[in-house]
Amino acid sequence: MAANLSKKSLRSPLAEARGLGSAKHGTEHWWHQRVTAIALVPLTIWFVFGVIRHLGADHAAFVAWMKSPFSAVMMALTAAVTFHHAQSGLQVVIEDYVHNELAKVLSILAVKFVCYALAAACVFSVLKISFGA
Amino acid sequence: MANGSGRPLSPHLQVYKFEWTMALSITHRITGVGLAVGTLLLTWWLVAAAAGPESFARAQKFIGSGLGLLLMFGWTWALFYHLASGIRHLVWDAGYSFELKEAELGGKIVAGASLGLTILAWIIGLAVW
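ok -> structure tokens follow
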């Protein structure tokens, strides 16, 4: 306590011990954003090549692509990690610019629900094509 | 400044002289939001493919239309910009490249790489298409 007073810390000793900061979540959100960002580097490069190779492709060619287990897993991972990264990034943008508490919470919830619904639709579509006849 | 707690707040943006690296910073955020909107097209593409040949042909036709190509071009650049700028952020997170000269060089690399990779991807894309 004395040490705390002498360096005029603005944080209480308990807050310092917990190390969770003003948002009460510590570095978890920040860390998840970095983990998904690192994962998206190879996934994005694979995705760009994949899309270029299937520009104007007909349905049969696209289905053949998604029938390959490697491509299906990569596409499902790309969609899942992209949406995880998107909702976590959009949350930060909303937290920075929306200051009305109710509007902030509601818009973050809406973004998360939409992102996870779209992610589920993408992954389901890939699996349907991959396992389909 | 009043923020209820009596704790000091940092001054707002207007007090700083504008630097082009500031534009790069906000562009990272804008491209991120733009790419999030672009996931709607990705979802349409995959869901249409799962639904069958007719709906997939409709999605492919939209992507190949003038508006579709314009959107795809914008998203290509946004994707490469956000990718390059994101790697620049990861370098900072690892504790490197904070010196002014290095930071400005990083900014130039990001801007150049995003434009170069976009043009390269479209040259390859149009050649394949």
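Chain B has one domain: 23-128.
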